Amino acid sequence: MLVVEAKLENGTPQQYQKLDEAIRTSQFVRNTCVRYWMDNKGITRNDLQKLCSTLAKNQDTPWVNLLNSQARQSAADRAWQSINRFYQNCRAKISGKKGFPKFKKYSRSVEYKLTGYKLSDDRRKIKFSDGFKAGEFDLWCSQRTLVYYSEQQIRRVRVVRRADGYYCQFLIDVERQQNHEPTGQVTGIDLGLKEFYTDAQGNTVDNPRYLRKSEKRLKKAQRRLSKRFRKGPNSLTTTTSNG
Where is this region: Disordered (predicted)? Predict the structure, then answer.
């Protein structure tokens, strides 16, 4: 399997809000499945899948029906993965905490399988077509990563919310073959602040400094905002140029 990530660009604030609603709905389905497992004995994965259909038809939770059916199943699968991991840890009798399933407070992703979205022929755009109707977004990524794969090879699509925007991860069914020739040498790595790491041979890798770069972009945006608006006596007024 291969994961290709692209940033979702050129969407309106309303479109990104729709993505947030889909993410929160996926979190609701996942947490409801965990609660259903806690309250009942002998719950299986199939029971959680059936619960998704029940939630979609429930008049008290009409927003669940807006989420794509396969996205609801993916949320139930996430809940079952945490439950199954807890069972495996108990059987293995590992020491310490067994990883009892917990409720998610701040989910940042929603996962689609084969439906709920449509890719353009040139792989530059994606359109989400479930009940939330988030609409079309531009995909910003290296073109050689997506254009060479067919839609049949894309097994899952995950929308992820981060501090710097929204991203789309494509899980592609492809067999990766990488031939490695072992050198027989051992090296040590020292992590640092100035450089990301330094190996035993003295080779260094620069620190990406994501926070510093984000702060610079924020300051630039704030300066641009301050030029467009000036403080009035009671509110902000837009500045206009004469001529």
Answer: 222-243
CA distance 184 to 92: 35
* Residues 205, 225 within the same domain: yes
Q: How far is CA 53 from the centre of its chain?
A: 24
CA atoms of 121 and 210, how far apart (whole Å): 33
Q: What is the mean pLDDT of the chain?
A: 85
Q: Does 180 fall in a domain?
A: no
CA of 225: how far to CAs of 12, 17, 79, 218, 229, in Å? 19, 22, 43, 10, 6
Which amino acid does the sequence have at 136? Answer: E
The pair of three-digit structure tokens given for residue 196, joined into one six-digit string: 């990301």
Q: Are 29 and 78 in contact (CB under 8 A)?
A: no
Could you read off the pLDDT of 36-53 as tens digits, one per residue?
Answer: 999 998 899 999 999 999
In a domain, 234, yes or no: no
Q: Global pTM?
A: 0.70
Domain tally, the chain: 3
Residue 191 phi, psi (nearest 5) = -80, 140
Distance separating alpha carbons of residues 4 and 165, to the nearest angstrom: 16
Which of 87, 109, 131 marks a domain boundary?
Answer: 109
